[in-house]
Amino acid sequence: MMADASEMLAAALEQMDGIIAGSKAMDYSNGLFDCQSPSSPFLGGIRVLHLLEDLRAALELMDNEERSNLRCQIPDSTAEGLAEWLQGRMTNDHGSEAVYQERLSRLESDKECLILQVSVLTDQVEVQGEKIRDLDTCLEQHRQKLNSTEELLQQELVNRTALETQKLELMTEVSSLKLKLTAVERDHQDSEVKCSPSQAIQEAQTPLCSTICFLLEHPPSIPLFISSL
């Protein structure tokens, strides 16, 4: 069984060497590949895949010792060619993974920057919201003061209107009183003119009445004078 696997591996390796060598010296016919040519990349790729699958199946049937012995029989050039070919794929995979990791790192960095920006913007929004609330409070206070001032102004206008009304009423009353006073003075003057004779008699009687009262209170001492005679 080991001999069959060795022969199969050797045949596969020879065919792969031929295919690889043929792929390096492709024949062109009028600028196009000849699909029937052994060096055609289409047929060569299929053959390589089939050979690799056959090789994998044969290796799976071997135990570890048989694999080690078979590995020692592989020519160095063949092993190096296969290793280089497979390493190129791994390099490409590692390169793709490195690019992916780089993009992932960049996305993570962008995400952190966005989170930081969102945090800063959130803080700014909170500060602006606090300022807006303070402004709303001040505005409400000013609105209340304005309403109070308007109420006071309305009350002042009402009071002023009432005072103006009272002033007009007082002026009317003063005018009426002046008219009444003028009429009273006129009547008084007329009464003084009518009562002037009696007043003269009264004025003449006043000293006489005073004399009589004095004599009554202080009677003269004429009898004493007569007795002394």
SSE blueprint and pairings:
Blueprint: H1 2-24, E1 28-29, E2 32-33, H2 41-60, H3 64-72, H4 76-194, H5 196-217, H6 222-228
Antiparallel strand pairs: 1-2
Count the DSSP helices: 6
**Order of strands across the biggest sheet?**
1-2
* Distance between the amino and carboxyl termini: 213 Å
The largest sheet is:
2 strands, antiparallel
Give me the count of strands: 2
State the shape.
rod-shaped
Helix content: over 70%
What structural category arises from helix and sheet content? mainly alpha
Q: Any low-confidence stretches, pLDDT <50, length ≥5?
A: 23-39, 221-229
Beta fraction:
under 5%
Q: How are helices and strands ordered from N to C?
A: HEEHHHHH
Could you tell me the mean pLDDT?
A: 73
Radius of gyration: 71 Å
Domain Liprin-beta-1/2 coiled-coil: 101-205
Protein name: Liprin-beta-1/2 coiled-coil domain-containing protein
Keywords: Repeat
Organism: Monopterus albus (Swamp eel)
Give your account of this protein's structure.
This protein is mostly helical and 229 residues long. The protein has a domain at 2-116. The protein is built from 6 helices and 2 strands. Helix 1 (2-24) packs antiparallel against helix 2. The chain starts with a helix and ends with a helix. Residues 23-39 and 221-229 have low confidence and may be disordered.
